[in-house]
Automatic annotation (TrEMBL):
Active-site feature positions: 215
Name of the protein: Glyoxylate/succinic semialdehyde reductase
Chain ranges of the 6-phosphogluconate dehydrogenase NADP-binding domain: 47-206
A molecular function (GO) term: NADP binding
Residue span, 3-hydroxyisobutyrate dehydrogenase-like NAD-binding domain: 209-250
SUPFAM superfamilies: 6-phosphogluconate dehydrogenase C-terminal domain-like (SSF48179), NAD(P)-binding Rossmann-fold domains (SSF51735)
Keywords recorded for this protein, A-Z: NAD, Oxidoreductase
Family to which the UniProt record says this protein belongs: Belongs to the HIBADH-related family. NP60 subfamily.
Name of the gene: 11432939
Length: 253
């Protein structure tokens, strides 16, 4: 049983109800009405940027392309962009140029340092973004890092949303991620159709930092539950039960 299956079992066991959003790729064209890109009419589809094409970023970007989104990609290692370019994505050679050429830019980066480098560093997003644009960081970072990035982005006149994800490679491929968002409420409403393409649920949690904090708390709970479950598997073996049957029994709770 992997993490995703474990989470599914736990969710049904505890009857947690997520806000299950429909796949809203058909609404993508409506988003342009809520964005005001300079020099563009409201009937022009929004231009979306995606920075960071690793294990998570690549399938997320791929799902946007499959949904017909006008996507521009960048990755530190350029070769990871090539498969997406061959499927129709545009390419820019820096985060700055992606942010300058797009209305909304998503970033899925390894850790706090890379998230700060890409957002605030030389040729970073903050140099290319500005009023009428939005930046959505879906990386997992700590609260202070998210607030730091928020400050740099907001100082340009652009909007910021943190949106770390729960889920792993398979949910990313299947468009089944859970977004824990916080920051600018209008930007949340604007990017909702794109989150619905990449995920199955999304939560808006208020001020910047709350998404990062929620992600850490969720991870702590998941880790504790995984540890208890592992203890249960071992105990079942010790008392002569088949751990596979325990898993099956548990799946009905
Ligand atoms: N993997 C999971 O199951 C999972 C689940 C939930 C959340 N997350 C979170 O999602 C984020 C991405 O995870 P991942 O698994 O996709 O990681 P990954 O496969 O290691 O990809 C990391 C990405 O960050 C880029 N990067 C690293 N350092 C950089 C730097 N200094 N400057 C610019 N770009 C840099 C990498 O570029 P290169 O290609 O050039 O190395 C790559 O695009 C992390 O915050 C992680 O905690 C992961």
């Amino acid at each position: 049983m992997n993490c995703s299956q474990f989470a599914t079992t736990m969710r049904s066991a505890f009857s947690l109800h997520h806000f299950n959003s429909p796949r809203l790729s058909r609404h993508v064209s409506n988003v342009s009405a809520s964005l005001q890109p300079q020099g563009q009419g409201t009937d022009t589809p929004p231009r979306i940027g995606f920075l960071g094409l690793g294990i998570m970023g690549t399938p997320m970007a791929l799902n946007l392309i499959k949904a017909g989104v006008d996507l521009t990609v960048w990755n530190r290692t350029k070769s990871k962009c090539d498969p997406l370019i061959s499927l129709g994505a545009k390419y820019k050679p820096s985060p700055e140029e992606v942010a300058a050429s797009c209305d909304l830019t998503f970033a899925m980066l390894a850790d706090p340092q890379s998230a700060v480098d890409v957002a605030c560093g030389k040729h970073g997003v903050a140099n290319g973004i500005g009023p009428g644009k939005g930046y959505v960081d879906v990386s997992t970072v700590d609260v202070d890092t998210s607030k730091l990035i928020n400050g740099h982005i907001k100082s340009t006149g652009a909007l910021f949303l943190e949106a770390p994800v729960s889920g792993s490679k398979k949910p990313a491929e299947d468009g089944q991620l859970i977004f824990l968002t916080a920051g600018d409420r209008n930007l949340y409403e604007t990017v909702a159709p794109f989150l619905d393409i990449m995920g199955k649920s999304k939560f808006y949690l208020g001020d910047v930092g709350n998404g990062a904090a929620m992600k850490l708390v969720v991870n702590m709970i998941m880790g504790s539950m995984m540890a208890s479950f592992s203890e249960g598997l071992l105990l079942s073996e010790k008392v002569g039960l088949d751990p596979k049957v325990l898993v099956e029994v548990f799946s009905y709770y």
